[in-house]
């Protein structure tokens, strides 16, 4: 995501604002945050299980 830059992020936010409207953006942001949190939790559990298997 580092290659997008500030102008690219601003453009994406403007497009999202036009498509979804200002009332839906916080809901979408919350859903994205929860999804990212669950993904991180799942990958951590997966790596922990691989580490446990390799120790046995």
Describe the structure.
The chain is mainly alpha-helical. It is 84% helix and 0% strand. The longest helix has 31 residues, at 25-55. The protein starts with a helix and ends with a helix.
Mean pLDDT: 87
Strand content: under 5%
For the termini, the CA-CA separation is: 38 Å
Number of strands: 0
Task: Please give the count of helices.
Answer: 2
Which sequence of SSEs, written as H and E, runs from N to C? HH
**What are the low-pLDDT stretches, counting only 5+ consecutive residues below 50?**
none
Largest sheet: none
Instruction: Give the helix level as a range of percent.
Output: over 70%
Radius of gyration: 18 Å
* Gross geometry: elongated
Structural class comes to mainly alpha
């Amino acid at each position: 995501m580092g290659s997008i830059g500030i102008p690219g992020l601003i453009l994406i936010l403007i497009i999202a604002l036009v498509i979804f409207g200002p009332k839906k953006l916080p809901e979408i942001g919350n859903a994205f945050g929860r999804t990212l949190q669950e993904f991180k939790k799942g990958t951590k559990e997966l790596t922990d299980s691989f580490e446990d298997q390799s120790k046995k």
